Amino acid sequence: MGAGGKGDRSERHAGRESPPPQDMSRTVKEWTPEECLNLTSPADSYLCPLSANTFGIEFLEFRIREMEGAQRELYNVKKPDDAPSEPIVDIPPELEDQYRLIQYNFPSEFLKAKTIGTSLVFSVGNNEVPSFRMIERHYFKDRLLKSFDFTLGFCMPNSRNTWEVIYTLPELDPDLESEMIDSPFETRSDSYYFVGNKMVMHNKAEYAYSD
Description:
Number of helices: 3
Radius of gyration: 17 Å
CATH architecture: Distorted Sandwich
Oligomer: single chain
Distance between the termini: 21 Å
Order of helices and strands: HEEHEEEEEHEE
Number of domains: 1
Shape: globular
Largest sheet: 5 strands, mixed
Strand content: 35-45%
Number of strands: 9
Low-confidence stretches: 5-18, 22-26
CATH topology: Coagulation Factor XIII, Chain A, domain 1
Helix content: under 10%
CATH class: Mainly Beta
CATH superfamily: GMP phosphodiesterase, delta subunit
């Protein structure tokens, strides 16, 4: 469920100053969807540079909500309507978490949910996106909990799009649930975004659950 920015910084993510550019001319491995689906633990680093986003995809708003009971909204971050688009530049590795990692704090009953819904509003640059795919891998420590694979269809150039996704969550045994509550931010996810077989974005998330 990662969509950019870290922790409290996510609220000011859209209005921040642009990061200093970084020379990324060195060869970077290009990861395929199949390779990402075979990963068995969280990625140690970001598997593509920010400059891989050659389609100018920009996340504008992200919401998480319950799909059962009161259907509460659990999270909402939105880029101000008058905020300018930011240039896509590579940054030093030590700064990447500030722009590509988000931390969530959810109530512990979230772990008992069977389904949740997310809504991502994003814009596309001057080139069409023939197919936008997200692979999301969720882990507790180094244990894979669940893998999700969603594909959105064609996106027109210079368009604004909304991507609604429903997650079916895994049933957790009580001991694992307790351990996840007692281990804040040891639950992690990697979100890999592809256009065709080209990875264009990679974001991370960490989760804490409290009573």
